[in-house]
Design goal:
2 domains; five-stranded parallel beta sheet; two-stranded antiparallel sheet; 10 helices; binds zinc ion
């Protein structure tokens, strides 16, 4: 009976892969087909111990040899990402972020859950989503980092979401800027929300959807550090290799 009902529902509300548009019937993911899912690259081996950069086959794991850590003095203790930002991940995030893609959050969560190293990394934490400026949030209607952080916090990993930060300055989108301009663009963009009182040794995980140079997430960590927080980590759904 249940099967019949879901078959009827599938017929009335057909689902398509959000990446390739293929019709979906019985698939593990609601809006991702199997062949698109196979393109996901999970991160977990041979990572920079600081920022999670994937060293691949080269075997180096030391932040002193990491191209990203060489450019930026990171304020977090460590950062990890669930997957690599390959073309498939880029398309998926684009759908989630700009195409009213809140409905994709369950699938994103399911992808993240497959990376058990990442799941242990974000367990027992307070997630601090990277905030959007109200102007951008108004036009996009939701903050993708908050939506994903909230969904992850519902899993049994003893974590919660606490929006400790707000954007105080409207910034140009980072994608329009060169790597060296990104840090300058982010300076003074965030502030701590007043009136939130939590112990300074709380394990914070600043959370964002994508990591490229790390300028945005690092600026958030800087503010938290400046206010005395001592246990700051960071995590993103995907990161550039
Ligand atoms: Zn597909
Ligand atoms: Zn690194």
């Amino acid at each position: 009976m249940k099967k019949l009902l879901s078959a009827i529902l599938e017929f009335i509300f057909p689902r398509y892969c959000c990446i390739c548009g293929q019709y979906l019937f019985t698939t593990a993911y609601r809006y991702i087909c199997e062949s698109c899912f196979e393109k996901v690259i999970f991160l977990g081996q041979n990572l920079c111990q600081k920022c999670g950069h994937d060293f691949g086959e080269t075997g180096f794991q030391n932040p002193q040899h990491c191209p990203r850590c060489l450019k930026t003095q990171f304020c977090f203790r460590a950062l990890r990402s669930a997957i690599s930002l390959n073309p498939m991940a880029r398309q998926l995030i684009h759908q989630f972020k700009y195409a009213q893609g809140e409905y994709l959050v369950k699938d994103l969560c399911k992808i993240v859950q497959q990376n058990t190293n990442f799941m242990s990394f974000i367990a027992d934490s307070t997630f601090v989503p990277v905030p959007l400026h109200w102007r951008r949030q108004f036009s996009r209607e939701y903050n993708q980092s908050t939506v994903l952080a909230k969904a992850l916090a519902k899993l049994p990993i003893r974590s919660q979401v606490l929006p400790l930060l707000r954007r105080v300055r409207y910034t140009r989108p980072q994608v329009e800027l060169r790597a060296d301009e990104r840090q300058i663009n982010m300076q003074g963009a965030f502030a701590l929300l007043p009136k939130i009182k939590i112990p300074l040794e709380t394990k914070l995980v600043v959370f964002d959807d994508v990591l490229t140079t790390g300028a945005t997430i690092n600026e958030c960590c800087k503010i938290l550090q400046k206010h005395g927080f001592s246990n700051i980590y960071a995590a993103t759904f995907a990161q550039k290799g």
